[in-house]
Structure formats: structure tokens, C-alpha cells
Amino acid sequence: MTNVPITVAHGDGIGPEIMAATLHILKEAGARLDIETIEIGEKVYLSGNTAGIAPESWDSLRRTKVFLKAPITTPQGGGFKSLNVTVRKTLGLYANIRPCVSYHPFIKTKHPVMDVVIVRENEEDTYAGIEHRQTRMVEQCLKLISRPGCEKIVRYAFEYAVRNNRKKVTAFMKDNIMKQTDGLFHAVFDEIAAEYPGIEADHWIVDIGAAKMADTPENFDVIVMQNLYGDILSDVAAQIAGSVGLAGSANIGEHISMFEAIHGSAPRRAGQNMANPSGLFLGAVLMLVHINQPDVAELAHNAWLKTIEDGVHTYDIFKDGVSREKVGTSEFAQAVVDRLGQKPEKLKAVEYKAVEEVAEGDKKPIYSVRSSEKKELVGVDVFIEWWNDKFYGAADDLGPQVEKVNGNGVKLVMISNRGTKVYPKGLPDTFCVDHWRCRFMAEQDGGTVEPQQIIDLLQRFKDAGLDVIKTENLYYFDGKPGFALGQGQ
Amino acid sequence: MTNVPITVAHGDGIGPEIMAATLHILKEAGARLDIETIEIGEKVYLSGNTAGIAPESWDSLRRTKVFLKAPITTPQGGGFKSLNVTVRKTLGLYANIRPCVSYHPFIKTKHPVMDVVIVRENEEDTYAGIEHRQTRMVEQCLKLISRPGCEKIVRYAFEYAVRNNRKKVTAFMKDNIMKQTDGLFHAVFDEIAAEYPGIEADHWIVDIGAAKMADTPENFDVIVMQNLYGDILSDVAAQIAGSVGLAGSANIGEHISMFEAIHGSAPRRAGQNMANPSGLFLGAVLMLVHINQPDVAELAHNAWLKTIEDGVHTYDIFKDGVSREKVGTSEFAQAVVDRLGQKPEKLKAVEYKAVEEVAEGDKKPIYSVRSSEKKELVGVDVFIEWWNDKFYGAADDLGPQVEKVNGNGVKLVMISNRGTKVYPKGLPDTFCVDHWRCRFMAEQDGGTVEPQQIIDLLQRFKDAGLDVIKTENLYYFDGKPGFALGQGQ
Asked: Measured over all CA atoms, what is the biggest interatomic distance in chain B, rounded to whole angstroms?
């Protein structure tokens, strides 16, 4: 078996020590690696590079496609960009993987039986940072969810389950409210789940699912989520497991992936052989499975579990009455090495499966090609800023003004304020702000609209002195409406 | 002191029994109420009213402005609308209040010390239901956050804290990512917190805050959140408190408010004098405080706590070794009545403050009037659907095509795909879908743009055969940009 090239960065603070400890265990466990080392972090930042990573380092990452990264220190003061955000966005790391495991009774937790892996989408959702202040009162953020984005993350969750010997993948979403965006995620989940009959699939509305996860995490295995839900609930899961300091994570891209500890560089502990290398080590275990060395991952991970259960603990997890021996960073690593070949007795031993290697050119696409659905333009939502000093009942003043721009084959069918229909026939109790959506559709019921009609409509809005702030076209796709009705429409 | 008129609906299933029990306690505790009764729910639905509430019932609600509502049964089958959604949207119930309390050791929980109140915004956020499918690949949902919406909910949280003798209000938000929408919520929180020097105010990024709340809820008091975060985390809080079946909630509007149990109508338990009336009763306690009868609320609530701690329990919370006496619905209510005037010994007794009544006309507005900031149009984001079968690197083909529509004083400054800049000078690793944002600004740096220039630009897009799907205008407000830069811009 040939070695796999990887890129390693030793980082700042406790980074070099915990990386040395981690690499020592990997080497003794027989990991088949060719290591390229790059410099990232504080020194690079302070040399004048605001990204914290030198241009030539990208070449190494693009060559090896695997990045084992120690924590770094971002210098105080302006102008320095988050290295993690830069790497994630630049390399398209679409999946964030975070195993959240409790090690009861060796590490304190309220949830003695917990072994949950959060698979979080990392490129889409409200995290794309597309925000607009639209009126004096209203700010907007776009939540964008794409089919390929959903396909990538859901497929990754199931592939992860297969490789890591997991039994179940659960999806959380809020598709009872967000029927289109979260509905797309749900539909893709159901499609892809059907390709994995050996893995149980289930799903929860995110509020109830989150409540169950926080109360009885022992009922969950792998949970796949969109970006925002995953951000919140991966923190919840890590915290209640009681093992934030021991947690590793993976950031997976289509071509390149990054593995690391969750914790930071802890400069005050640096150079004292005190730090716990477990977070980075468990990140490296994720890496070993990813590069298809499950034998090494299993050997090393089980030795680590035995070490924890033998009470050989670094200062951060040392507890009188539970721990047996307080050790430093390098002694902890050696304790793991000494247990290679052993399995834990009280904690559950891990098992990883080999997956048949597929040549790069033979790999199945992880997302589908674009469908060629027929798209028909049927109308437009024109949003305006308008205000007549009334929080209630103003729509009856506005409606007739907007109706004056009817014509040329399109007509106003509804005005809504933050989603609730207020004209025609609104209710006097609906609180309204200065942000109005005016929905125009073809005069003829069910008719289509030409792009030119929309441009002409916008011209009439302008000529009428109405302050258009944005538009959203309304489409049918293969005859199905691609837009929601207003509440009450 | 005069009586306060309220509207009561007895509901379906166990509703009539638990309402009778609740009203019995209120009466004996000396609640000063004039009750109007309305019919809602199953019978009304099945009489052909798809909203589940008769038109004349709205008159009662608008007259009394206070609604004590038992759970109802929504019939199976299509066409019946959720009564709660209808009432909430119709009456502008902007605040959802949910106290989440543990009653250790009398009710099982992993969190023995927990007394958290979630104050959730209920009208805005991604829950406005404004969704558009924009391309063959991409669905969009709008997250709208308004200044008056933030002001209403944050002020309510602080007013609630004052009335309910609470010490601290915490805000959760994600303004490190959503700098404008969640940033507005944060700014309003800071402004309003300053008006309440007697109440401690703090805030957390929602992921970390959620993790802390799920792990150590004893460190929180009142938590105020936008709609989505509040939806998820109020379920988490209720669940981990162990008291979902005992929880009441309030839905507060500017003019009208509704009080209820969290649980449903449990038809299978109906008519057997079994059901626990505590959820509805605790909803009624929220009502008593709301209508400024804190003396009655305190008397009744403390008697209820004493009943729970005396081990007088209905079947649902009865536990051998903890409970002392298993009772039915009406006996439970009588046990509470028998304890009026007593306080709990192990559980913490409640205290409610009287608040000086302010005549309707003298009330301070709960949101500010609109600011008259200067708004300047400086550009537009034109979104297009475009696809050339390449998930990577396509922007270099698209960019020159879009640049051809430059002219008439505006020019392309950036193209981004789901928020990441891809043109000019994009990176080959950025995964792109068929949804592109083309940002146009004045040719002259820092210049303004006329609405006519945008209309003309859209005309040139159309004439160039580019498929515009939506627009977002770019504004400065009092000289400050109202839009975010693209990642990498």
C-alpha cells in the first residue's frame, strides 16, 4: 500500500506540541503518510500576509488535498482575516463534521450515552452574507438553498455513515414553515436516503429534533443539517457531551479536506508539555478514515479510548477519584502508543470499514446534473418603500396608488407586509412597516408574462413616483408554482 | 377594583375539563374577571368554517382584548387552517412567551435548577413565508428583520422582566455572521436595555448561547430571540426542564393577547377527569400578571407549587416514591384551592409586582417613529440564471458577457455565487450553481444612481439575452452603506 501525501501545519501556541504528539501516535500506529509541512498563522500574519497563509502553501494543499491543521493564533488588531473562513470559502469545504461523544464515567457529562455526529452544510443558507438594508425600517438577509448544495451534504452524511460504521442518518429541517428551501433539503434527503438501504433514515422538524437531541442524545447517530441549524446544534451537542476540549472536526471539500481540533491555540499553555492533544488526534482519526486507512484509524482510536478509560489524563480532564495518573502532552501520546492493539473495556470500541477505492475518474458525481425543467415567467413581486405614518391600516391608502400602474397585460393581485396579505381586504389588526410587496401577475388568469412587461411595469412604478427597492420574479417550473402565496392570499 | 373582561374558549378533548379546573382556581383565588365565552375548534370547523372560529367571536376578542384558550382539535383532512396561526397573524401577536421551569425533585429532570423564560419574536424572520424558486437549482427564502419588530419584542422582554420580578434579560443572535439583520436586533437590544438599569442585560452568539442554555440553564433568566432561534430553543428549554406537560404560554399582541397550555387536546383522555390542568392554569397565571392582577397570580401560583411539592399529582406526573396522592382533574384543582394562601417550602415561591396602570392614551409607544435618514441609491444587485454546464470556473465565461451591459453611468463591479466573489479574479475552487449576483454601481466611484438608470440597465440585460430573475437595490443611509460586500470583494 502506497503512502498518502498530506499537508501538515504545526500552528501556534500549543499547536506544535499537540501536533508532535498526534504525529507520534499516527506513526507508531502505522499510518501510511508522506508529510509536507507548511507555515500558517501568527508568523505569516505578522510578516504582512493578512490571510495568514503564504501563496505557495495553497500549492501544497492543492497537491496533497488533505490538510491536518493545528490551531493558530490570529493577531489582535484589524485587517487580519480568519484563516478558517478563508480556507473554507477558497477551497469549497462544503461539509463540517463534528463527532460529539461522551466518555462517561471518565469525563463528566449529564448524558452518559452519547455518540452523535453532526454533519453541517457549510456554504449556503443565511451564512452566504447577502444582506441589504432596504428601507428605513427593514433589513433583509437572503437564505439560499441549492439542489447541488443539498445533494453534496446529504450524500456526504450517508457516505460518512457507511465508512464509519454508523447505523442511522437523521435530518433536521423546518419544512412545515419553509416549504420551498427546507422542503428542497427534505426532498433531496429522501431521494438520497433511498440509495442507502443499509442505513436507517429519519427526520424531525428542527425544533422538536433539537429538543430531543438536547434531552436524549442517545437516540441519535448521524444528524445532517443546513448551515444555520448545524451551527447552533453542533455547539449544543459538543457542549452537552462534556467533551469540547477533546473534539476533533473535519471540513470536507469536493477536492480538498481539512482536519483539526475544535479548540484554539491556548498561548498561555504553550511550551509546557501540558496540553491535551486529543482534539487534534481525533481530527487526525477522521482524516485516516477519510483517506481510507480504517485499519490505522481503528487501532489508534481504540488505544486512545483505552488510555482515557485507564485514567491516564492530562491536567484539563484530570479528576480526583476518576483519573489515575496525571501526565503531560508527550507522556499522554506515549500512553496511547503503549496501548496500540488494545481495546477499551467499558467505553465502546470503534470499528471502521474499508471502502473500495475508486479511481478519481470513475467516481460518481456527488450532485446531479441540472434538470431541464421548463421555466415560465408568470409575474413579479415588486417591493417598495412607502410610509404614511400609520402602522395599522395603511394598505388601503397604498393599494389604489399601486393599482394605477396596472396595465400592459399585468395587474396587481396582492400587497403583503412581511408576508401577510394586507390588500385587498386586509385586516385592521395587521402591524405594517414601510416595506411592501406588490404581487403582479398576468391580467389573464394563468397567463405568462414577458420580461419586457416587467421592465415596462418598473417604468410605470417610477413614473408614478413609487420607490421600488427590489424585485423577485415569479416562475412556474414544469407547470408547478415556484413561489409561495401570501398568508391570507 | 373593577373586573377585567376576558374571552374564554373551552376547546375540544380535555379542554372543557381543564378549563373548568382552571377557572375554579382563578375564582377561588379572587381573580376579578368578567368572562365572555366563545366557541372555537372542532365543532366550528365541521360546521363549514375553515378557520375554526366564527366571525362574531372576533368581536369578543377585539372587545375584551384578552383570550384564555383551551386546546382544540383540528379535524383531519384538507382545508382546515391552523387556528393558532390564524389568530396570531390576524391579531398581530408578536411575542410568544414560554416559561420553562424544572420542579426538581418532584418532576424528573436532568437540570434541577432551571427557571428560564423564552421571549420569542413571532411575526418576522424567515417565518414570513416569502419564498421563491429562482432558478432550476436554487430556492430562496427572505429573512426580514424590522426595527419596529425588534423594538416591540425587546421592549416586551424587559417589561416582562419588570412585571415578573426577573433579574436578567439575555439576547441570543448571530450578528458575527448576519451583521445587518441580527446586527439590528443587537443594536436595538442595547438601546432598550439602557432604559432598564434595574435589569441586567447580556448577550451571546446564538450557537454558544444555545450550548450554554442546554448545558447549564440555571445561568439564564429571560432570553429574548428572533423567531427562528426562539422556535428551536424554546422547544429545547421546555424539553430539558422536563415539564412540557405543565407548561403554559402567552402570545402577546399590541392590542390583544392569548394565553394557553402548550399541549394539545388529547381526545383519548377526554371526559375521564384524568387530565392535568396545570399547563392551562399556568397560562392563566401569565394572563393574570398581564392584566395586572399580580396579587391573584402570586396567590394561585404559590398554591399550585405547594400542591406539586405535596405530591398531589395527576396520573401523568405521578411517580412512586415521589408522589403521595394520585388525583383527577377536579381533585387536583381543589387541592390547589385548598392551599390558597400557602407557599411552597422546597420549590421557590413566586413573587409578582404590581405595575402602575397607565391609561390607554398615555401609554408610551412600544416602538419608535420612523427615522428620516437620507437614503441614496448607489447601485443594484441584478441576479441572473445562467449555466454553461460547469460547476467550477464558469464565471470567467460569464463576466465578459455581463460587462457588455455596462454603460449609461453604471458598471459591473463584482459577480458572486452564493455570496462568494467569483468575478473578477475568482478562484478555480469555488463551487458555483446557476444563480449569479451581478453588482452594478456608479461608474464614478462613490456616485449615486438614478432609478431610471436601473430600469435602463435591466433593459440592456434583456436585450443581451441575459435572464434576470430578481434585483436588490443598493443604498446608503445617512452616508452608511446598507449592503454587505461579497466574500473576497
From this structure: 83
| Burial of B5 (C-beta count, 10 Å sphere; 0-12/13-18/19+) | middle
Predicted confidence (pLDDT) at residue A302 exceeds the cutoff of 90: yes
What is residue A431's three-state secondary structure? strand
| Residue A179 Cα distances to A145, A336, A485, B131, B319, angstroms | 12, 49, 11, 8, 41
Say how far apart CA A43 and CA B384 lie, in whole Å.
42
Put simply, whether B274 touches A (Cβ < 8 Å) is no
> Among A65, A74, A114, A139, which would you mutate to test the B interface (most chain B Cβ atoms within 10 Å of its Cβ)?
A139
Give the integer Cα–Cα distance in Å for A485 and B410: 35
Considering only CB atoms, A146 lies closest to which of B137, B179, B471, namely B137
Provide the grid cell at A103: 466518555
Tens of pLDDT along B37-86? 999 999 999 998 888 888 889 999 999 999 999 999 888 776 777 888 88
Cα of B299 to nearest chain A Cα, Å: 32
Q: Does A63 touch chain B (CB under 8 A)?
A: no
Whole-angstrom distance, CA of residue A478 vs CA of residue B442? 38
CB of B388 within 8 Å of a chain A CB? The answer is no
Cis peptide before A424 (omega within 30 of 0): yes
Instruction: Render pLDDT for A320-333 as a digit per residue (tens, 0 to 9).
Output: 999 999 999 999 99
Query: What is the average pLDDT across A300-315?
Result: 97
Single out the residue of A59, A78, A82, A81 nearest to residue A7, CA to CA: A59
CA nearest A173 in B: which residue?
A: B232
- Dihedral of alpha carbons A455, A460, A462, A463, sign: positive
- Rounded to whole angstroms, what are the CA distances from B138 to A136, A145, A197, B435? 29, 6, 28, 7
Verify cis geometry, omega within 30 degrees of 0, for the bond prior to B105. Answer: yes
In the structure grid, which three cell numbers stand for residue A5, read together?
501525501
Q: Which of B38, B41, B25 is nearest to B73 (CA)?
A: B41
Bridge partners, A379 (sequence order): A441, A474
Contacting residues for A221 by C-beta, under 8 A, at least 6 apart: A115, A116, A117, A161, A166, A167, A168, A169, A170
For residue A489, pLDDT over 70 is answered with no
> Residue A248 in contact with residue A281, Cβ under 8 Å?
yes
The interface predicted TM-score of the complex, written ipTM, equals 0.93
Residue B189: is its pLDDT beyond 70? yes
Strands (DSSP E) found in A10-83: 33-38, 66-69
> Torsion angle of alpha carbons A211, A213, A216, A218, nearest 10°?
170
What's the CA gap between B206 and A405, in Å, rounded?
A: 44
Q: Which three cell numbers stand for residue A416?
A: 403583503
**Do the chains contact at B211 and A420, CB–CB below 8 Å?**
no
Neighbouring residues of B61: CB distance < 8 A, sequence distance ≥ 6: B7, B38, B67, B91, B256
Nearest residue of B to residue A231, measured between CA atoms: B207
What is d(CA A280, CA A262) in angstroms, rounded to the nearest whole number? Answer: 8
Task: Establish whether the linkage from the previous residue to B277 is cis, with ω within 30° of 0.
Answer: no
Torsion of CA B13, B16, B18, B19, to 10 degrees: 140
- Inter-CA distances, A389 with A473, B367, B370, Å: 29, 13, 8
Helix (H, G, I), strand (E, B) or coil at B483: strand
